[in-house]
Amino acid sequence: MNTPVEFMDEDFKKRAGVKGKALYIGLFRKFILLTLICSLLPLLIVGWGINIHYTNFAKSRMVNAFQLMVDYHRKIIEQFLSERTSKLRLIANTHTKDDLKEAFNLNHIFKMINRDHGAIVDLGIIDETGRHLAYIGPYDLMSRNYSQTLWFKEVMEKDIYISDMFMGFRSEPHFIIAVTRAEKGKKWILRATIDTDAFRSFVENVRIGKTGEVFLLNTKGEYQTSPRFSGRIMEKAPFHTGPIYEGTEIKFFNESPDGLKQSFPKQIVAQTWLKNPRWVLTVKQDYAEAFSDVNHANYATLIFLHLSAISILIVAVMIARYMISVIKKQDIESDQLNKQLMQAGKLASIGELSSGVAHEINNPLAIILTERQILLDLSDKTRIQDTEFKNQLTESMDQIDTQIHRCKHITQSLLRFSRRTRSVVEDVDLNSFIKEVIGLMEREARTGGIKFLSDLEDHLPSILSDPSQLQQVFLNLITNAIDAHDGKSYGSIRITTRFDEKNKGVKIVFADTGTGISEKGLEKIFDPFFTTKPVGKGTGLGLSISHSIINQLGGNIDVRSEVGVGTEFSLFLPLKPPPDLKEDMADD
Amino acid sequence: MIGSKILLVDDEVVFANNMSKLLAIRGYKVTSVNSGDSAINALEEEDFDVVVLDLKMNGMDGITTLKEIKKLGLFTETLILTGHGSIDTALEAIKIGAYDFLAKPCEIDDLIEKIEGAWEKKDEGEKKDIQEKIQKLVESPSAAFDLFPPKKRKT
Fold first, then answer.
1. Cβ contact A363–B25 (<8 Å)
2. Over its length of 588 residues, how does chain A's per-residue pLDDT go in tens digits?
3. CB contact under 8 A, B84 and A362
């Protein structure tokens, strides 16, 4: 019977364990999920929202600044060119062709202009046929005829003309500003070559960070100044200049404009058209550099945000673990409580059942016993001649008697087990009480070669308890202790009493030198019907009853044992019984 | 003591009959009844030395019967015989005034031992009572009217 029960218990525990584990994991996940939804998600949403908003704001500010810078540079360039153009127009309009044809006059004007503004390399007067009338400058250009040149045609048509960069006769990149004046029905041209170096320097020398470059392009997309990295003056730029427009345009290039897809950093490009000449001022910078500050701030915020999120997550995990451990602990405690309740319930129902059974069996037993006695009485009176029959009758009668006593022993144990309430509580002097109990058992112990040793504390306070129940427990423990010496020719039972001031009670220890109890036996020692005694000798109820009695009296009972050395039962009894026991008394 | 009058009260008829037989064989004058009411009636009718009373009976139970018996104020001692084996109830019975108790099933010899004990107690009680009465009579003979009313009663 023991094996299947044990198996079921183990199986049940295992299943409960697995279920419990899954339950805790589920609970843990729910907890984490809740924390994430309640704290992490809002944090991330707000954080990301602020971050995106701030990034857009900062970028638009950066773009504006970029645009302003481009506008500023365009204005400077335009001012430079318009100043020189108006100077030339003033000279042309205030001097006659004849005045200026004079080398001296022209040289004087050339010097005056350069003294005030500089940046003019040469000055020339050209007639309507394209011939030089006068020339002041470092080159020998007097013999040149410009009638077939593009600039000559343009200026004759437009009256004011600023050329693109061209090589011309002098074979180096330069550009000219030319104005016309009509005199006596004939046009003549005042032409100035701009100091390319001076002009280029104030475009090319603008330094924007490490990757920034500033350059001018004409309508055909040729560099009018040398860019810092991407080409040289008069080379074709990899940009499509597109249609001419007013204002400034900002573009972002994700890939190389020439279509080559080698590692090309994203770039920000700002372009604005000059009014005259139609050149486009281009400022270009690597996107990463232009927005490095914003990006840094961005990264910092994001790192901070995610660190916060991670720390919240870690804290959430820790809290969840802690909570789960607390819940687990509580579950274990309530589990133990449940087990105790179940044990109590089990004992109670066994008690009820056994009481009924015992009574029902005792009456028939009593009848059988009287019938046996009647038969015995009669057989004594009757002369039985068959000795074999007589012997068998005697033997059977003895056996009936033995078996009836066996049954009686069982039913009495059962009844004792079922006896629970109706405690008679009075003052008990445990020391003298124990001496009495020893006195009761001494003869039985002595026949087994067992000595009683008592170590009783002097001035032990008396306790309020039920003496008859205590007697039952003590007798039971001593009987067990004596029985434990089965097979040993001598031994001892030591009974110790001690006052436990801290817990307000008395501690009583019954220690024997018997055979001891195995670990497996210890687990079940207080279970009803568990016995190590041979069949017919023990019912397995004694310790179970003792356990329930001591519990009922508000105390507890503990056992320690070592096989071959002995067993020690420690009892604790409170000075006063629990209130519910007193209620029982009141009921009585 | 041989010849003692015993009233056996048990609702288990077979047991009561058997026990009567056994006690009769051993020289006792036994009357057996099967309920508390019959027991009270019998005691009112007749004198008994010892009542052997079962605790758990249908109708009037043992404790109530015992209380009723005590109300009669007899010298008769009551021995409790219980199949229920409940020491608590037995102790309660002793508190009420039972001589002793015995758990069923019991040996006839044990029962006789207890019956003898009860008889002695009853006898002692009676003797003591008579002595007291004699003493009183010696002191004041007129007390005889009080001491010996028509029916034998304890004071």
1. no
2. 333 334 444 444 444 555 567 888 888 888 889 888 888 888 889 988 998 998 899 889 888 888 888 898 899 899 989 988 998 999 999 999 888 888 888 899 888 888 876 688 899 999 989 998 899 988 888 888 888 888 899 899 988 999 988 887 778 888 999 999 998 888 999 999 998 888 888 788 888 888 888 889 888 888 888 888 878 888 888 877 778 888 888 888 876 655 555 567 888 888 899 988 889 998 888 888 888 888 888 889 889 988 998 998 899 899 999 999 999 899 888 887 787 777 667 666 776 777 778 778 888 888 999 999 999 888 888 888 888 998 999 899 999 988 888 888 777 767 766 654 445 677 888 888 888 888 878 878 888 888 899 899 888 888 888 877 888 888 889 888 888 888 788 889 999 999 988 888 999 999 999 888 888 888 778 877 777 776 656 667 778 888 888 888 888 888 999 888 899 999 999 988 877 665 444 333
3. yes
Q: How far is B49 from chain A (nearest CA, A)?
A: 22
Within chain B, strands assigned E span 5-9, 29-33, 50-54, 77-82, 100-103
Is the domain defined by A96-290 classed in CATH 3.30.450.20?
yes
Helix and strand totals (H; E) in chain A: 14, 16
Contacts of A115 (CB under 8 A, 6+ apart): none
Domain A419-587 indexed as CATH 3.30.565.10:
yes
Q: State if pTM tops 0.90.
A: no
Sorted by where each starts, the structural domains of chain B and their CATH numbers stand as 5-121 (3.40.50.2300)
User: ipTM of this model?
Assistant: 0.81
- CA nearest A364: which of A332, A311, A403? A403
> Domain spans of chain A?
96-290, 419-587
A365 touches chain B (CB under 8 A): yes
| Residues A261, A14: Cα–Cα separation, whole Å | 65
CA angle A259, A261, A266 (to 5 degrees): 95
Q: Please give the Cα distance from A109 to A571 (Å, whole number).
A: 130
Q: Which of A362, A419, A587 is the best substitution to test chain B (most B C-beta atoms within 10 A)?
A: A362
- Cβ–Cβ under 8 Å, residues A223 and A217: yes
Q: Which of B12, B76, B22 is nearest to B44 (CA)?
A: B76
Which residue among B87, B104, B108 sits closest to A468, beta carbon to beta carbon? B87
Nearest to B74 by CA among B14, B113, B118: B118
A370 → closest Cβ in B22, B56, B91: B22
